[in-house]
Amino acid sequence: MFRIVAYLQEATVQKTLLAGIAAAGLLSASALASDLPTKAAVYKAPIAAPPYNWSGLYVGANFGGGWSNGSLNIPGNNLYGGLTEFIGGVQAGYNFQAGHFLFGVEGDFDGASFSHPVLSNPTLGFVDQHWIGTVAGRVGLVNDQWLVFAKLGGGWVHSDATLNLPGAVWNGSGTGSGWLAGAGIEYGFKPHWTVKLEYDYLGLSNWNSPTIPSVALNRDLQMVKAGINYKFESGVSATAEPSGTSGSAEPSEDLQKASQNPIADLVSVPFQSNTNFNTGPFDRTQEVFNIQPVVPMHLNDDWNLISRTIIPLISQPSPLFDSNTNGVGDITQSLFFSPAHPGALIWGAGPVFTVPSANDPFLGTGKFLFGPTAVFLVTPGHWVVGVLLNNQWSVGGNPLTPAVNSFLAQPFLNYNMAHGWYLTTSPIITSNWLAASGQQWTVPIGGGFGRVFKVGDQPVNAQIAGYYNAIRPTGTSAWQLRATLALLFPVK
């Protein structure tokens, strides 16, 4: 079992996994720091901007993870420890704003991707969840571009179940309904665009099989979702909307610096490939492709909150067969509180949590993780020197999967050159605190180069680097190739 954990530890190059076969999704949080800074730069929020208008119709998309403490309850036994899953879909709603108060209604529909074997043995049966739908009223408090809301309504979940046990053989499909309660925050980062983060609890009645004795499937569901919405009505007046982009062929120096600063006031969407060679007993290639939207939010004139989300798409070599398991891993969310006008020391700190969203047990931990994260850096001359730190512990999720306690430290050193070019090294050092002595640490060495440039009017940051794991757990791949392409959307 430890060999499986070891393969997953370096896969995402950010999280070291503990004992347990499903750890690749957690480690995908390496993306938090892989495009770390070369210099600090902060774009200022517009001065005396008019209040943001939240009223009107909107549509959007969401993604996240869900988990249940549900169980298959046969008298005297509890055979099913719950499920974790990736969820993703669409939503639509309407808001009415009255001063600092908001009232609205919202509906969403999400596909769910999970098939959970009973007792981890597929011959005994499966529990599958296919889709989730909710409709709820929303009430909130508005402060310019910020919205804090609560929601209350109902929802539906469609599930399949197969049970093959002595005296209880059943194959059924059903849709359960129940009540929904949730809360979240939303931020208008563009005149027509908002982003949100919310928690929802969907309480469902038990699903009882027609067998004798009857088997009750508890399906209460908890969800953490991030979303983005398009507002048909602009959030600001027409005169306050930003004008067109700059026509210069080369990005400005400020944009170059901001694109390499993880806590800059700059919207970006990085795509990062982590390729690990000769992984597992069959020397297969492991691929972790991270989608990493970054959205800065202005709390006030003195403080920013930077949201960094990691969505890993994983191809994980099997520890038993000469094949790979493909799918979505665990999604990681970091929030950095950072001064808008830092001094010589630039810093940000806040919470980090990982949602059990993997669609296969080999690709995630099955746990909800939580902990602190921070980044510190200085920028003397052309140099940037700093470190990113975090640690996460398991605080919920499937009770049948192993506990998690993982640490990450990423020192970074960058040198800026002319025309957007830079040299970089950012080894991601991880520790699996629950692993056996001598098998906890992964310490890579290496580096690479990158450049900030424009494709038409679209600023882009591209980087490539290679790393060798000088210290690593037994059986872990030694070499990794990391390549990143980030789309940049500076404040106009």
UniProtKB/TrEMBL annotation:
Signal peptide boundaries: 1-33
Superkingdom in the source lineage: Bacteria
Spans annotated as Disordered: 237-259
Domain Outer membrane protein beta-barrel, residue spans: 21-232
Cellular component GO terms held in the UniProt record: cell outer membrane
Subcellular location: Cell outer membrane
Pfam families linked to this entry: OMP_b-brl (PF13505)
Family: Belongs to the Omp25/RopB family.
Protein name in UniProt: Opacity protein
Native organism: Bradyrhizobium canariense
